[in-house]
Design goal:
1863 residues; alpha/beta; seven-stranded mixed sheet; six-stranded mixed sheet; 59 helices; 65 strands; globular
């Protein structure tokens, strides 16, 4: 093995250079064809990137700027979340600084599911599904009447008005159980206290069953609640109201009033019930109004709105025919002739005109033809009635077992509107709710422009705004704003239920733009890809206004664009060129648009040439005129919005169809003309042709070719030369060379897609994919063929001096010249195939360039060439029919100059006799057309008409034509490049209005951007609510709203806060206190992800050494592998397996399909054999291992069979195979990884090999713990291995105090011997993880890698070094990478998380931190503040929740909440700069306690004097510990005074917790009889004395007190038990037999069963955060009605649990046990908390103090018990308290000090770990540990009284303590 080099010390390089604030700075941009330029882009502007097609615009905008901006923000999410987001590759750029989080709004449509609609994409449906159950009015589905929900008050009012003076029975229905006799039923009711029932119109008493005359009862009996004579007397009204309320309760929402005299009755319902119809509606919920939820989706079509069935429109294709003429096509053959006769006869009887065109019949008669008479069709036929066309198909469907019937039916099948829901997609229940007489599907189906007219305005036509609450108004406005944006970007013609898959690329992009606008983000980089695509010039100005709005909101908008008006609207222009492809990629111009023209003489810019008028696209000097009779006549086109139009399209001309967006252009050209012509010609198409009366004049046409915007192949194997078919001839030319002929090679030998000639390693790709797991996959040049795709032997054959690789590397222009020099017909054909590419401006492309690297414009033109070549005539023949070529917006993505080239191609096509029909908005194309057809006048329902036809000049004269107004508008004078001035920027603030979350009292606050803001106030005043529940929840939610719905579902979004408005909010990142410390195997390197990247590094660039021989493994020859296999075969038969998948997540159905194609019939999947055919998808997010079964071999197998099988296995397994013996043993065979000495073979290196959480990598002796745990899990006792491993880890975690012997096998390394034998640059992974963060930086800086390894390691090492550097920067350089996460302090955990966020290197983000100074020594705090201010100076905003005085003083802006805590807080007491308090906004009603504490420093000690300390020489009064050696403690001898307040302090990581928790606690416990451990513990001390009088130890650490709402302050401090006992002793409770358990909301009996005692019910909402709503049964009280009837001192149990601690303290004053605990809670500043407040809602400081109170009460009880048992001497407790000031305001710290002193005064010993100088100044004794952290600590620097400690010159604490004592 290599020698371990000594670590060389290196000065870490500064990875970042300074950059100017307010810009995005890029250095050395080399993505794709970009030429390594530097670029600075201003933030907050509209930036346009332009240049010729293929010049590199998208490479800069999307693959560099967007990729880096999104990657960095997504890095701030959890690793689990990140895997679900599309992470773009890290761009090739040296440095990117100042980039904000980025969102891409690209063109193109990748949606494939019909579940996705405009409504779901924009989020409008998400708001509507919440709005509808909130405000929709229920209607009865039977009678259609509105259903009114009755209440006790409304029924009382009805009785007073209609039944005054009458004797009325108030009753409710009770179902009679089956087989119950009347006497039994009467007895049951009587036992429950009900005396009368109303049956069969008579009144009976339940205690007189013998008077009931019948033997049976009706199904429901009316039980009388009360009999009342109706009058207006107050007492009578109250009685009536109470009886009705009770009847509603027992009748489950339904009651009946019965007039006793007339027996007439009236029914009422408090629910959604139509009493006259007896219909009860289902309660509305968000799920009911979502077709993506099982609750709301139509069960027949499952929410798709369509089903596969008979399409009646196909049965009646030409509706202009009459019944007599055969409108029903299905009836015209032999099979349907009888039905035609039946239809004619029945129509005559009904009086239907059989000679009138079907389309002119009344709607009622048309439906009669289709569906027939009501009733069963079969019965109608028997009676001679018409059974309908549908009845005919229903009948013939029964005979579909016959082949000819199935063929007949297939002609009429298609996806049709669901018959059950009629296309609404929803369950029938959802249609019973309406807003303004509109159901939700009605709203979806309205054009957005029409819906906006109903929605908007001061008086909406749908609702009365005065009736809406604040939530409904907010939802209403959210929907309205998104509708307005859709309308503004020219999409008013769309409907919300328009399928997303049917949208064009341009429409999809503008829909996404609307989504982003609705998210209301600021400080975000929005990258748009040609948003003007598909937009008429009329709508372009509106689009510019929308983009300006996005910019003016505080964002940076970067647009890739060629549209002139958008270029002119830019604030900043980036022109890339000067040419295309390799001739592009340079910065031609960058700067303000106003300076662009001034630089004209210096620049070589095609863009500027066209904008300035130096170049232009000329108008044809003459236009072709239509030839008489050569016309395509379209009659009666009425598909979609076309209004029965007639249009003539002259053939042999260049014709342009134009009109505003949504006017019907694509419908006319694609649906009507193209699809109908295709069908007329007998060609098959899946799509249904558009509805048209007739199309004539196409008889002389040749091919009908459509060139639309559908994507080209994304396979990198497809190249331009392959696409145009020239590669076949090139391969033939190579095969015809003398050398190739001599070798017998055919053309297939020269293919890189198949055959023997391609490189066997990369299979002709030229690159290899390296799966990077935590990073984007890396594609590296194949090391064998060096990217040439072919084997070396193929490259030896040359054609005219060039190899096949050199030919593919030629540009198209060069290739044309090359093949023109070769005299060969095949070479001439190559030239003929390539010339069209040059003609459309693609001459710069390389022949072998992968198509998936082409820009949008390049792909579109390549597609055009492909169609031209495919349909070109084989011979010149003037009589040959000419083609009709249809183009759908061919200028998509094209520069002005590219449009000129394209128009030349069009004109040549027409000159050759072809007809060119183009859908286009571009005025340059329109003005060059021979004939123009203009549709309009508007989009959607207001379009579909012919506005004008003729030449462009004639169109221009038409006043109604929008197109005419814009033609030639762009012919401007040369000096018209002016910037459209932006609006003044909005206030640079985060504006919060009406925040009412938790205890916030409708506050209004402004927080400036790019500042360091501190939110402070008393504990519980509302700081975390404002910071996290309002700011963070909204900021992250809005960014996620811009992402896909699929990605959003994997992110735990916070609930939408109760706030009226939040403006100016950037994307947010939260850094909270509550950081998971992981399980027993978690270390510093795993929680920071450093170890993840180290595993990846060692797997990808590591060198495997043989653990036995110590030599590097080499490739093994095939012959030696065969010999090894034969030896094994002598021991028995084996299965030869080839590894296909190793530990990868996914369905892997494609792997099975591939295996089947290779002839592999059986797969070995996760340890089980499965067939390749019929392979079922695997679990997507679970790792899988798949091998292919290549052969089953035995000793008798032939040598040839063994050789061939091993060849196949090694080839498919990339050099690795394995054999599986009958006993289950697996032996690896490797041509890559074999030891040259002993022959041992090894698997290919995989990251899992280095994981000690996986059996693949862990040491099997210690299972990855590094220590031997005495008792490993008994696997047989658990349901699964995973369950056993979790139990093992749990037991390991609680065995802290047990001896943990170092594993003798791995020596604590945790991983197996194979993993420990992998080296990277002279170090193994286990050695590297044993060093500190600081040393790891030095080692990694010293790595020296070369070649491919250097390339692969580049990004991995960058990730590792970045994380290490920031750990060092936040003061954690001393931590060892293998330090257990469970031993980290709260402060260390917090700073680890902060370091991870610093590494994202973002700008424009709002970072929200939760008390980052926790656990920090004052000295380390200074370093942290420098880090935070640098984060601010990078252009970010910081909001820090903090009490630390130094942090407050460092803030640019201060927000102080108060004046009290809990209910008494939630107000803004002070807001402004601390340095200028006069300018700050101060609440006049109260002074700021924070400002008061800062200006009025407290004197110490607060009691005026300190307790005396016993003499050190005294044997009494001291706890003495010898040789404390836990963790970094260096055999300390430590003395701690008894019955005193002692503070342990020192820098973070110096060893304080090690002394208190690792030594003191177990040492003292070992001397207490009741605490002596049963098992041997690891002694971290030599001896301890002085603990004789200590009864017990109590540790108060930072662990949470409860994770569910069932845990409350009252339950935790144990007073709830006492309270329940009090209630159970109340006389009423005794009478009912209630025990204390009855008054628990955690158990059955007394709790409300509807909510399970939670008081709230969880409401799941798709796409929206989970919501908790108040339980409708108990109204949040948690208990059932019977329990709440028990009162103690006038209060029931629920009312007591809602009391504050202070209120309860007074209420229970007479009950000492309860009162004492409550008083202690009050004295520690928690008087504002309610007894039943759920623990998860408590702040960190609150939870800490509750725990302190619980331990104090526990200790007081034990000391009291010891005295009662007669224990002599002092009976005191030892309290070990870890950083109790966490989360405490200065005022609360004072309260805490008093509690600590009170404990000491009671005779207890209190030891506190603390960095707060106020606590230090109050100590009787201080022990300062240090001097530094980690290995530099572990010693006592100084000790003594505070006055003695401040004299120390070596103590890091003394300067800060001296400052407070001397102040």
């Amino acid at each position: 093995m290599p020698k371990r080099n000594k670590v060389k010390k290196k000065t870490p390089k500064n990875a970042k250079q300074s950059w100017q604030r307010g810009i995005i700075s890029l250095r050395e941009v080399r993505q794709n064809n970009l030429k390594g330029f530097d670029l600075d882009l201003p933030l907050g502007q509209l930036i346009v990137v332009t240049g010729p097609s293929g010049s590199g615009k998208s490479s800069l905008a999307f693959q560099t700027l967007y990729a880096e901006g999104q990657r960095r923000y997504i890095e701030t999410f959890s690793p689990y979340t990140r895997q679900f987001f599309e992470r773009m590759d890290k761009p090739r750029v040296e440095e990117v600084n100042g980039i904000p989080p980025s969102i891409a709004i690209e063109q193109g449509n990748t949606v494939r599911t019909t579940r996705s609609t405009v409504g779901t994409l924009t989020g409008i449906n998400d708001y509507l599904k919440v709005l509808f159950p909130h405000i929709a009015v229920p209607h009865c589905p039977e009678c259609g009447e509105e259903i009114m929900e009755d209440s006790a008050e409304s029924v009382t009012q009805f009785a007073n008005v209609n039944l005054a003076g009458k004797s009325v029975l108030v009753s409710f229905g009770v179902p009679v159980p089956r087989q119950m006799k009347p006497s039994e039923f009467f007895q049951l009711l009587s036992a429950q206290g009900f005396l009368r029932i109303w049956v069969w119109g008579n009144l009976y008493r339940t205690d007189e069953p013998e008077k009931y005359p019948k033997k049976t009862l009706p199904k429901v009996v009316n039980v009388v609640q009360d009999r009342i004579k109706i009058s207006t007397v107050a007492k009578n009204l109250a009685r009536l109201n109470e009886a009705i309320e009770t009847a509603f309760l027992f009748g489950k929402g339904t009651i009946r009033l019965i007039d006793f005299e007339s027996a007439r009755d009236w029914s009422f319902s408090s629910g959604k019930q139509c009493v006259p119809c007896g219909v009860t509606l289902r309660d509305p919920s968000p799920g009911l109004f979502s077709f993506n939820s099982p609750l709301g989706a139509c069960p027949k079509c499952r929410g798709f709105g369509r089903t596969l069935g008979i399409d009646l429109d196909r049965a009646l294709p030409d509706k202009s025919l009459s019944i007599k003429e055969g409108v029903v096509k299905a009836f015209q053959g032999e099979r349907g002739s009888e039905c035609q006769t039946d239809l004619l006869q029945c129509a005559k009887v009904r009086g239907v005109d059989v000679h009138l065109a079907y389309e002119k019949l009344s709607k009622k008669n048309r439906e009669w033809v289709l569906y027939g008479e009501r009733g069963d069709p079969e019965s109608n036929w028997e009676q001679g009635l018409w059974y309908g066309v549908k009845g005919f198909f229903d009948w013939i469907e029964r005979k579909s077992y016959k082949m000819h019937v199935r063929i007949f039916l297939s002609r009429y099948r298609s996806y049709t509107t669901c018959f059950a829901c009629r296309g609404t997609r929803l369950q029938p229940d959802a249609l019973n709710y309406k807003i303004g007489n509109h159901t939700l599907p009605d709203v979806w189906q309205l054009p957005i422009s029409d819906l906006l007219n109903l929605w908007n305005g001061k008086k909406s036509k749908l609702v009365e705004f005065s009736n809406l609450d604040s939530t409904a108004l907010l939802l209403w406005e959210e929907v309205g704003s998104r509708l307005r944006y859709l309308n503004r970007v020219g999409l008013g013609y769309l409907t919300l239920d328009r399928s997303a898959r049917s949208l064009s690329g341009g429409e999809m992009q503008r829909v996404h733009l609307t989504t982003c606008l609705g998210a209301s983000l600021v400080n975000t980089l929005f990258v748009l890809d040609e948003p003007s695509i598909g937009l008429h010039p009329k709508d372009t100005d509106q689009l510019i206004n929308v983009m300006n709005d996005l910019r003016d909101a505080g964002n940076t908008v970067l647009v890739v664009e060629h549209e002139e008006s958008i270029i002119r609207a830019a604030d900043h222009l980036v022109d890339i060129g000067p040419g295309r492809g390799e001739d592009g990629g340079d910065l031609v111009y960058v700067g303000p648009i106003s300076d662009y023209e001034k630089s004209r003489k210096k620049l070589s810019s095609l863009t500027l040439d066209y904008l300035s008028g130096d170049k232009s696209i000329p108008i044809p000097s003459t236009r072709r005129k239509p030839k008489k009779g050569n016309v395509l006549k379209v009659r009666g086109a009425q598909q979609n919005n076309l209004k029965n139009i007639n249009v003539e399209i002259p053939l042999g001309l260049f014709v342009c169809v134009t009109g505003v967006s949504g006017s019907g252009k694509s419908t006319l050209v694609h649906d009507v003309i193209y699809l109908n012509l295709i069908r007329e010609r007998g060609e098959s198409t899946e799509e249904l042709p558009g509805e048209v009366h007739s199309i004539a004049g196409h008889g002389k046409l040749g091919q009908v070719v459509l060139v639309d915007q559908s994507p080209l192949s994304r396979n990198p194997r497809s190249t331009p030369v392959v696409y145009v078919g020239a590669f076949e001839h090139i391969r033939k030319l190579f095969a015809e060379t003398p050398e190739a002929k001599g070798s017998g090679h055919l053309p297939g030998y020269f293919s890189f897609n198949s055959g023997a000639g391609r490189c066997g390693r990369c299979w002709g790709n030229g690159f290899e994919k390296v799966e990077m797991q935590f990073l984007s996959d890396l594609y590296v040049k194949c090391p064998e063929c060096e990217g040439k795709r072919y084997g070396s032997e193929v490259l030896e054959f040359q054609l005219a001096g060039k190899s096949i690789h050199e030919v593919l590397n030629l540009t198209i222009e060069s290739a044309i010249h090359f093949f023109e020099t070769i005299e060969n017909k095949k070479a001439a054909r190559v030239v003929a195939d390539l010339k069209p590419l040059a003609d459309v401006g693609l001459g710069y492309l390389k022949l072998g360039q992968p198509i998936n690297t082409l820009s949008g414009g390049e792909s579109q033109r390549l597609k055009l060439v492909g169609h031209l070549l495919k349909n070109k005539p084989k011979k010149k023949d003037k009589s040959q029919a000419k083609d009709l070529l249809l183009f759908d917006e061919p200028t998509t993505g094209l520069h002005f100059d590219d449009i000129r080239i394209l128009l030349n191609v069009f004109q040549r096509l027409v000159d050759d006799g072809h007809s060119v029909l183009v859908i286009e908005h571009n005025c340059e194309v329109i003005k060059c057309a021979d004939h123009v057809i203009d549709l309009g006048p508007e989009g959607g329902s207001e379009g579909g008409e012919i506005i004008a036809v003729g030449t462009p000049e004639e169109i221009k004269k038409e006043k109604k034509s929008y197109t005419g107004k814009f033609l030639w508008r762009d012919h401007k004078p040369k000096n018209l490049l002016k910037t459209i001035e932006s609006k003044g920027p909005q206030k640079n603030i985060i504006s919060v209005r009406g925040a009412r979350e938790n205890n916030l009292k409708d506050i209004k606050i402004d927080i400036p951007h790019d500042t360091f803001t501190v939110i402070t106030g008393l504990s519980g005043s509302g700081k975390s609510t404002l910071a996290f529940d309002v700011l963070f929840a909204e900021g992250q939610r809005r960014f996620l709203d811009s992402m896909s719905a699929y990605a959003r579902q994997f992110v735990q979004q916070m609930e939408r806060p109760d706030v009226d408005q939040v403006h100016g909010l950037p994307p947010t990142v939260a850094i909270e206190q509550r950081v998971s410390r992981g399980g027993g195997k978690s270390t510093v390197s795993t929680v920071t992800e450093i170890y993840h990247f180290l595993r990846l590094l060692f797997a990808k660039v590591g060198t495997q050494y043989c653990p036995d021989c110590g030599v590097s493994v080499d490739k093994k020859s095939k012959n030696s592998i065969i010999s090894s296999v034969k030896k094994v075969l002598k021991l028995g038969p084996v299965k030869l397996l080839s590894p296909l998948v190793r530990g990868r997540k996914g369905f892997h159905a494609d792997t099975a399909a591939w295996a089947l194609r290779q002839g592999i019939g059986t797969l070995f999947v996760d340890g089980k054999f499965m067939e390749s055919e019929g392979f079922q998808k695997l679990e997507r997010f679970k790792e899988h291992t798949i091998d292919g079964l290549v052969a089953e071999l035995n000793e008798k197998s032939k040598h040839s069979e063994i050789t061939q099988s091993i060849d196949d296995a090694l080839r498919w397994g990339h050099g690795t195979a394995r054999i599986l013996r009958e006993d289950g043993q697996s032996i690896v065979l490797s041509s890559e990884m074999s030891c040259p000495d002993c022959g041992n073979a090894f698997d290919e290196l995989d990251p899992r090999l280095f994981s000690y959480n996986s059996p693949h990598g862990w040491c099997h002796a210690c299972r990855g713990y590094g220590h031997i745990v005495p008792s490993l899990s008994d696997y047989e006792k658990h349901d699964s291995i995973t369950a056993a491993e979790l139990e093992e880890e749990r037991r390991y975690g609680i065995s802290k105090e047990k001896i943990k012997d170092i594993c003798p096998v791995c020596d604590g390394a945790r991983i197996n011997t194979v993993a420990r034998s992998v080296w990277v640059d002279h170090i193994t992974i286990d050695t590297l993880t044993k060093v500190s963060v600081t040393n790891a930086i030095e080692i990694i800086d010293g790595f020296s890698l070369e070649g491919t390894k250097k390339l692969i390691a580049r990004d991995i090492l960058a990730e590792i070094k970045q994380r290490l550097f920031f750990l060092q920067r936040v003061g954690l350089g001393y931590l060892g990478l293998d330090r257990s996460a469970t031993t980290l302090s709260g402060g260390e955990s917090q700073r680890i998380r902060l370091a991870a966020q610093l590494g994202s290197n973002l700008r424009g983000v709002l970072y929200i931190l939760d008390e980052p100074t926790i656990g920090l020594h004052p000295r380390d705090n200074e370093q942290l503040l420098k880090t935070l201010t640098s984060l601010r100076d990078q252009g970010n905003s910081l909001v820090v929740v903090e009490h630390d005085e130094n942090t407050i003083k460092c803030a640019d802006h201060l927000v102080d909440l108060g004046p009290g805590a809990g209910k008494e807080g939630g107000e803004v007491v002070f807001e402004g700069s601390l340095g200028s308090q006069k300018k700050g906004k101060t609440n006049r009603r109260t002074a700021s306690l924070t400002l008061s504490a800062i200006s009025n420093q407290m004197s110490h000690p607060i009691s005026g004097q300190r307790r005396k300390i016993p003499s050190l020489s005294s044997k009494e009064g001291w706890i003495r510990i010898k040789n404390a050696n836990a963790n970094n403690l260096k055999n300390l001898d430590c003395s701690i005074p008894l019955n005193r307040l002692t503070v342990l302090t020192g820098v973070s990581g110096s060893g304080k917790s090690s002394l208190m928790r690792g030594v003191l606690k177990p040492a003292v416990d070992s001397t207490i009889k009741s605490k002596k451990p049963k098992e041997r513990i690891c002694k971290t001390w030599k001896s301890i004395t002085g603990t004789d009088q200590i009864v017990a130890t109590y540790e108060v650490d930072q662990s949470p007190i409860g994770k569910t709402s069932r845990s409350t302050p009252a339950t935790y401090v144990k007073i709830f038990d006492e309270i329940r006992k009090l209630y159970s002793n109340v006389p009423e409770s005794r009478l009912r037999g209630y025990d204390p358990g009855r008054f628990s909301f955690n158990t059955d009996g007394g709790r409300c069963e509807s909510c399970g005692g939670n008081g709230r019910i969880k409401l799941e909402m798709n796409f929206l955060p989970t919501t908790w709503v108040e339980c409708g049964e108990c109204r949040g009280d948690r208990y059932n009605r019977a329990t709440l009837e028990i009162f103690f001192n006038g209060k029931n149990i629920a009312q007591v649990m809602k009391m504050s601690v202070s209120e309860a303290c007074t209420f229970f004053e007479a009950h000492t046990k309860i009162h004492t605990t409550l008083a202690l809670l009050r004295d520690t500043g928690l008087g504002y908390l309610s007894l039943g407040q759920p623990s998860p809602t408590l702040s960190g400081g609150e939870a800490q103090r509750i725990k302190l109170v619980a331990e104090i009460r526990k200790g007081q009880g034990r000391a009291r018990n010891a005295k009662m048992k007669g224990v002599t001497g002092s009976c005191s407790n030892l309290y070990l308290i870890e950083e109790p000031t966490i989360g405490l305001h200065h005022k609360d710290v004072v309260n805490l000090i008093r509690v600590l002193h009170a404990l000491v005064d009671e005779g207890h010993t209190v030891i506190v770990i603390e960095h707060n100088t106020s606590i230090m100044a109050e100590a009787d004794y201080i022990i300062d540990i240090g001097p530094e952290a980690g290995e530099g600590g572990g010693q006592i620097v100084t000790k003594g009284r505070p006055e003695q400690v401040i004299r120390s010159k070596t103590s890091r604490t003394s300067p800060f303590l001296r400052e407070i004592l001397n102040s």
